[in-house]
Amino acid sequence: MRDEGKLEHHTENLWIQTRTLPAGLQAKLGRFSSQIGYLNEQHPHADDFTERPLLYRGFLGGHWYDDGLRLNWTAPTPFYLRFGVEAFSGKQLIKEAETKKSPGAQTFSMKTGGDFDASNSWQFGLSYLNNRRQAEVHEHGEDEEEHDHAHGAEFSGKRMWMTDLVYKWAPNGDSKNQQVRLIWEHARVGGIHPESGSLRHSGTSLAAVYRFHPSWEVGARTDWLKVNKPELHDDGAGPELEFGSGRLRENALMIAYKPNHMQTYRLQWSRQTATGGDEPVFASPVKNSIQFQVVIGFGAHGAHSY
Amino acid sequence: MRTVIKSVFTALAVSASGAAQAFSVFACEPEWGALVKALHPSAQVFSATTHLQDPHHIEARPSLIARLRRADLAVCTGASLEVGWLPMLQSRSGNAKVQDGQPGMFYAAQFVKLIGQYEGVVTPFSGDVHPEGNPHFHTDPRRLLQVAAALRDRLIQLNPAEASSISEQYASFLKALSERIPVWEAKANRLKGKSILTQHATFGYLWEWLGIRSVGDLEPKPGMSPTPGHLERLRAQMSQSAAQAIVIAQHHDKRPAQWLVQQQATGKTPLVILPATVPEVSSTALLTWLDGLVVTLTQEIK
Predict the structure, then answer these.
(1) Interchain contact A211–B (C-beta under 8 A)
(2) Which of A22, A279, B21, B87 pairs with B222 at a CA distance of 20 to 30 A?
(3) For B211-258, how does the pLDDT look when each residue is reduced to its tens digit (9 = 90+)?
(4) Residue A239: beta bridge partners?
């Protein structure tokens, strides 16, 4: 990633975690990815598509990691049940804030899941983000340069609810040769601006991936994003606050070759369509794009989550 | 929601009742579950995987986190076999008993000498190599006995009240297996020096024990699935000097091995498919399974 002639680098993970707290409690301190939603906590190098779903790109800056503290409790139930709270600085979520509070963001989340049988498993998550940093409002058309990686949320609000549902199938639970993964996520953002009334943002993503050979996967994803962006419009009589509405739809198809878990070669086609008012938020959707992605892992690598 | 809350409280009540609860064991692979059953039959044993799964590639499923959360002891292979999923389960479970370094986390690999250490420099192109060595040592009954002795000590440490029963169970397991080993060795004596093709190092210790030579691997690199180019090279190799059998595990994709067999003269090279571990978790499963391996090999390899 090059930016103004400099090679960009950032630290996404620098944390300590307890392992021996009693009663199923775990605490984590440092810089880490928030556990809201399904994908946010996953390592981006393990993603099934070249970019995160629209709702992540729009509401979480692609992948939201921040400085903070987490406390989780795993219940001693026959099925998986985990509750968690996090407190973050929020600076990675809202880069330029009008109101600066500490902590800048809090999350509350729960995850539950289990097996239907040896071949079929599921997980459901519900999370809430309380964002206490109100984003600065910019002039219409004054778009920050587009980045796909943790540069703050483009569309934000005081409250965000997320729900996620994952279903996986593998014959006899052996995912090496064959697997199907279905991932559904939905996010709803309220409290966009003190003057926005009941206007909301919302986003949904549905992805299906099929591993049909130990080294090959195909996948399809469809995304919707609906936003009401607070913007300043100046028609000569001074800047005036307006809410620009926009809808963006994205469909993607991908095929990936993974000769082992240190290497991924992915070819992806995606297409966006946008609708909006006279001065649309999504003025230039990417009509058709073909991307080729290579991911190479080095060194010992930790385990992946479900 | 009410049912959820109710079961949370039921579970809390159950864990609070402590001693009344059976000693709960989470086995990463069924062979260790069977070994725990042989040494401590009253333990409540759950195996995270089955003989139909490749233990390198397991999803850290929510159900497994829930199982590990409630375990008193986890018995795993170690030597990086479970590196792709166990650390995630340990971390998510929040169970202090089964973290590395605690008596409740038992890695069998710490008690045996491993073969097949990878000595090169590990790069992203090396495949799934294990610098520690081949982790599939449960196919060697002599190493099983070494693990059994260490596991006996660990079970006694965690269940001091059951010490005499566990020692007795261990003694009878030791006797039964020690008696069988020379019988199996005699039966398989004529297999010594036979050459076979295999897939992955799944049965590496079995070949070493029985003196069978593995002259080729269907995987071009460890953990990498057979490729057409690599199969073609093996076909050419077999036309020079034929292998006496192709042996794969039940969880492997059969098609590559079947293709190679079809390239040989009819009936010349049998395809032998073996379960890589016990198909059920019971106190007698290990003996029955090892017996089955020896019988199948002696029947199939001419």
Answers:
(1) no
(2) B87
(3) 999 999 999 888 888 889 999 999 888 888 878 999 999 999 899 999
(4) A234
- Residue B165's SS3 state is helix
- In a structure prediction context, what are the per-residue pLDDT tens digits for chain A, which is 306 residues long? 334 455 667 777 888 988 878 889 999 999 999 999 999 999 888 899 999 999 999 999 889 999 999 999 999 999 999 999 999 998 888 888 887 788 899 999 999 999 999 999 999 999 999 998 888 888 776 655 444 444 688 888 899 999 999 999 999 999 988 999 999 999 999 988 888 888 999 999 999 999 999 889 999 999 999 999 888 887 777 888 888 888 999 999 999 999 877 889 999 999 999 887 666 788 788 889 999 999 988 766 667 889
Confirm whether A16 is domain-assigned: no
Contact residues, A window 2-31, toward B, CB-based 8 Å cutoff = 17, 19-26
Tokens of A203: 């986003």
CA distance A151 to chain B (A): 28
Chain A with chain B: Cβ pairs closer than 8 A: 145
- Residues A261, B225: C-beta atoms closer than 8 Å: no
Mutation choice for A interface testing from B57, B83, B126, B221 by most A CBs within 10 A: B57
- Residues in B touching A77 (Cβ below 8 Å): 7-8, 11, 66
Question: Is A113 inside any structural domain?
Answer: yes
The residue in chain B having the minimum alpha-carbon distance to the alpha carbon of residue A174 is: B53
**What is the rounded radius of gyration, in angstroms, for the C-alpha atoms of chain A?**
20
B135 contacts B80 by C-beta, under 8 angstroms: yes
- Residue among A72, A47, A77 nearest A62 (CA): A47
A285 in a domain, yes or no?
yes
Residue among B60, B66, B99 minimizing CB distance to A77: B66
Instruction: Name the domain count of chain A.
Output: 1
Residues in chain A: 306
Q: In which domain, by residue range, is A235 found?
A: 32-63+94-296
Q: Are A221 and A49 in contact (CB under 8 A)?
A: yes
Contacts of B123 in chain A (CB under 8 A): 298
What does the alpha-carbon distance between residue A173 and residue A179 come to, in Å, rounded to a whole number?
9
- Amino acid, res. A106: Q
Instruction: Tell which phi-psi region holds residue A44, choosing left (phi > 0), alpha (psi between -120 and 50) or beta.
Output: alpha
Q: Does A181 touch chain B (CB under 8 A)?
A: no
Catalogue the long-range contacts made by A143-151 (C-beta closer than 8 Å, 24 or more residues apart). A147/A62, A148/A51, A148/A52, A148/A57, A148/A62, A149/A1, A149/A44, A149/A61, A149/A62, A149/A63, A150/A10, A150/A12, A150/A61, A150/A62, A150/A63, A150/A64, A150/A65, A150/A92, A151/A61, A151/A62, A151/A95
d(CA B57, CA A261): 10
Largest CA distance in chain A: 68
Does A4 fall in a domain?
A: no
Interchain CB contact of A119 with B (< 8 Å): no
Tokens 């199907």 belong to which residue?
A180
SS3 at position B136 = coil
* Phi, psi values for residue B83, rounded to 5°: -60, -25
Backbone angles phi, psi at A235, to 5 degrees: -100, 25
